[in-house]
Amino acid sequence: MECPTCTDEYEKLVIRMSTPRVVIDNAVCSTATIVKVDSARKHGILLDAVQVLTDLNLLIKKAYISSDGRWFMDVFHVTDENGNKLTDESVLSYIEQSLGSIHNCRTSDSNGFTTLELTGTDRVGLLSEVFAVLSELQCDVVEAKVWTHNGRTASLIYVKDCNSGTPIEDSQKINIIEARLRNVLKGDNDIRSAKTSVTNAVVHTERRLHQMMFTDRDYQRNPIFKFASDTPLVTVQNWAERGYSVVNVQCKDRIKLLFDVVCNLTDMEYVVFHATINTTIDQAYLEFYIRHKDGSPISSEPERQRVIQCLQAAVVRRAYEGVRLELYTKDRQGLLAEVMRTFRENGLNVTRAEISTIGDMASNVFYVTDAIGYPADPKIIESVRQKIGLSHLIVKELPFVCHQKAEGEDQSVGVGGAVLLCLGSLVRKNLYNLGLIKSCS
After folding, report:
1. Would you tell me which of 77, 293, 335, 419 could form a disulfide with 32, CB atoms 3.0–4.6 Å apart?
2. Residues 85, 32: contact at Cβ < 8 Å?
3. Could you give the residue ranges of the DSSP H alpha helices within 19-120?
4. Cα gap 209→230, rounded to integer Å
5. What is residue 346's predicted lDDT score, i.e. its pLDDT?
6. With the CA atoms of 163, 164, 169 and 173 taken in that order, what torsion angle do they form, in degrees rounded to the nearest 10?
7. Which long-range contacts (CB under 8 A, 24 or more apart) does 407-412 make?
8. 178 with 198: CB under 8 angstroms?
9. Does residue 119 sit in helix, strand or coil?
10. Can you tell me the distance from the alpha carbon of 402 to that of 268, in angstroms, rounded to the nearest whole number?
11. Once rounded to an integer, what is the mean pLDDT over residues 422-431?
12. What's the mean per-residue pLDDT of the chain?
């Protein structure tokens, strides 16, 4: 007969072994808060840990990651968006509690809403058509994120029924929504690759956007144009003596960079055993020692090239291209459809969008370019602002000046402009994301 006391003690030991140990230290480093995590290892746990920090828009200035045997250890040097150490006790408590529960299922940005997932070919006016359809079908857009990369677009749109204010559960209406949006995404030339789905499942928005883009193989497509500074330097080599593949990434530093890279390594079914992350004023240097889930390193040249392409896409697809416009106004049905129609009628293409509602107010961020991806004419931007409302639609950033034109065109860029571009990428503040943060425990 099994001893009850022994069983209880064994269960307590298992709990202690599997529960991550989290230590937050503000004394050791003068420039950053140090967050240490020790835990039993499982696939995806590094991504979960990084996700906790990046959901708070924290900058990871340095990191040391090690996984030996069945144990996993992370050390993160983090600051807020202004480069300051973390002093808010509520934030520190949230980090400690969230990291302490990363072995549990972490979910969601979208409780209580119906989730629309859309992928297809990007084009001017696409979002205008999407939001017009949703308005016509009495769907109230509560939150949304839209990414574009290499001529492809991926969107996660959270909606509720305009009349009841509840998630959409009527199967007939869901079928109509899917069919109408699929027709919009297909356009005239995207019959095979346009995809739509409607679900009430709970997802992590940015993690899912990476998965959607990866599944859509955006990394294999050639961009119409790209900024000269866009492409990160990625190298992959095998360390035969130890059985690792060593991945190095060098690019401009920014918020959520480590999350983007680790998210894609995880989705490609690689395990990070060791890693070092260092940043300077404007550059990030990331080194990963990885293997397949079965323990083998990268085994062929095509696979090596695929890893390089995928990681370059992971870094670039979140890039902020174009003029940043912030819309803050009272929310109403059809608002997004009207704003997007105004963009379309003036030849503006939305390269990224982050849409949210706070109470009865709409807090939206758009990045816009001209129809072929170059910086929009300031006169057109001003005309659009006058139509939507000068006090509601604010220009927060100047167009990128460091971009590569078509072959044969003048490619000269002033040094001062390049420096301003680098500095601008560092101080970009995504204020409205804070309004989207929900507890993921």
Report:
1. 77
2. yes
3. 45-54, 89-99
4. 19
5. 96
6. -10
7. 411/228
8. yes
9. strand
10. 32
11. 30
12. 83
Higher pLDDT, 439 or 51: 51
| Neighbouring-strand partners of residue 71 | 40, 68
Tokens (6 digits) for 72: 């996993």
Parallel, antiparallel, or unpaired: how do β-strands 393-395 and 33-40 relate? unpaired
pLDDT-wise least confident of 44-48, 227-231, 377-381, 405-409: 405-409
The DSSP output letter for 433 is G
Tokens of 441: 């425990």
Which tokens hold the place of 271?
A: 């395990």
**Among 57, 401, 31, which residue's Cα sits nearest to residue 258?**
57
* Beta-bridge mates of residue 237: 246
Give the Cα-Cα-Cα angle 8, 14, 20 (nearest 5 degrees).
135
Q: Which tokens go with 277?
A: 């992350």
Q: Which amino acid is at 239?
A: W
Calpha distance 428→57 (Å, rounded) = 11
Q: How far apart (Å, rounded) are the C-alpha atoms in residues 36 and 73?
A: 7
DSSP secondary structure letters along 245-286? EEEEEEEE--TTHHHHHHHHHHHTTEEEEEEEEEE-SSEEEE
Strands 71-79, 33-40: pairing kind: antiparallel
H helices then E strands: how many in the chain? Answer: 11, 16
Tens digit of pLDDT for each residue in 324-337? 999 999 999 899 99
Position 146 confidence tier, pLDDT thresholds 50, 70, 90: very high
Residues 385/328, Cβ–Cβ less than 8 Å = no
Place of tokens 């079928």: 175
Rounding to the nearest 10 degrees, give the CA dihedral for residues 208, 211, 216, 220: 140
d(CA 383, CA 54): 36
- As a dihedral over the C-alpha atoms of residue 230, residue 233, residue 234, residue 239, rounded to 10 degrees, the angle is -170
Structure tokens at 376: 């929009």
Question: Which residues are CB-contacts of 62 (< 8 A; sequence separation ≥ 6)?
Answer: 32, 76, 77, 277, 278, 279
What residues are paired with 364 via a beta bridge? 327, 355
- Under DSSP, the state recorded for 113 is S
What CA–CA distances, in Å, run from 301 to 78, 217, 264, 314? 36, 19, 19, 20
Would you place residue 65 in the very low, low, confident or very high pLDDT band (cuts 50, 70, 90)? very high
